[in-house]
């Protein structure tokens, strides 16, 4: 039914997920994307690093939370970047990554980096094209992690 399709240009806000109920929404999106969709083990997906991270949540004007990302406070490592399937390719990843960049810049960081999944083989995904479109460049050679190829990528903050 057409009325159930997501809007092509959704209106949204990005919030810093400091409150437990916002964090729960981040975790629900991560579960749907990384565990249910990509098949990651829950012990890999959720780890102690979450307590050391700043989390962001993208919420549509309708109130639906559809995207999340986190950044490790100690070293500017971005991760657990997830947009729900029906909302991908609409430009919603960009404002989330920009929220991370603004945050790291505001605390004096000089760069943001990530370990991007880098191959569709073995059930993995290749997100390197997304990060490249957002200004990230490769750092070093690709490597295997948790059974899939990964590539370190870095963005230099102006
Ligand atoms: C990766 C992900 C977060 C991107 O989010 P998104 O909302 O679809 O991305 P956007 O629509 O904001 O895209 C921004 C730009 O990147 C491009 N892009 C997005 N995904 C891409 C891909 N896989 N390969 C190449 N380019 C891509 C878009 O075309 C767009 O380019 P443009 O600005 O020139 O039009 C999303 O696909 C996702 O949640 N994937 C599953 C989880 C995952 O694998 N996360 C990364 C783990 S390392």
The overall strand count is 8
Beta fraction: 25-35%
Secondary-structure-based class equals: alpha+beta
Q: Average pLDDT, to the nearest integer?
A: 92
Ligands bound to this protein structure: coenzyme A
Specify the helix fraction band: 25-40%
Could you tell me the CATH topology label: Aminopeptidase
> How many strands, which pairing sense, and closed or not: the largest β-sheet?
8 strands, mixed
Domain N-acetyltransferase: 13-158
Protein name: N-acetyltransferase domain-containing protein
GO molecular function: N-acetyltransferase activity
InterPro entries: Acyl_CoA_acyltransferase, GNAT_dom, NAT_camello-type
Q: How does this structure look, described?
A:
This protein is α+β, with helices and mostly antiparallel strands and 158 residues long. It has a single domain, classed as Aminopeptidase (3-Layer(aba) Sandwich), CATH 3.40.630.30. It has four helices and eight strands. The chain has helices at residues 20-37, 42-45, 93-106, 128-133, and strands at 12-16, 53-60, 65-72, 77-83, 111-117, 137-138, 143-145, 148-156. Strands 1, 2, 3, 4, 5, 6, 7 and 8 form an eight-stranded mixed β-sheet that branches. Strand 4, helix 3 and strand 5 (111-117) form a beta-alpha-beta unit. The protein is globular. It binds coenzyme A (COA). Coenzyme A binds next to strand 4, helix 3, strand 5 and helix 4. Pfam families: Acetyltransf_10.
